[in-house]
Design a protein that fits this description.
A hairpin with a 5-residue loop joins strand 6 and strand 7 (104-112). The chain is built from 1 helix and 10 strands, in the order αββββββββββ. The chain is mainly β.
Length: 160
Amino acid sequence: MKTEVLQQHRWLQQLLGDWTFECEMQGPPDQTPEKSTGTESVRALGDVWVIGDGRSTMPDGDPCTMQITLGFNADTQRFTGSWVGSMMTHMWIYDGELDVGGRILTLSSTGPDCMNPGQTRVFHDVIEIIDADHRVMRSEAQDADGKWAPLMIARYTRKR
């Protein structure tokens, strides 16, 4: 089975390498965002997948690890992937698309609503390429009115 490498697969290749990040997590509106730092190493799995392994700390100081997989499904013409973290038992399954300008990948997923146990919400993880050495990832959740509320922003810098 031979997979043709498409432009979308090549887009993912720009994520390869070793990165540091600074993260701000939004809590309740009356609280200051919690901050953390970490590292991520992104490697290729062939020419059509990327896998990122991240390390950081939780607000209480406990270490955490994360893994993201990203690819592009030529049959559905959609980006696909997953995200798991040592701090939770939910596996996030991504479905996404690239913006017309080719800089912003929006990944949608459904996951647990922390504010309403037993319910789910729709989430976005949005990866924006700033330049070859900088990218941003924003996470947001859709509320009952259909509006998007920011949850987290991480600013990545490529290690040299």
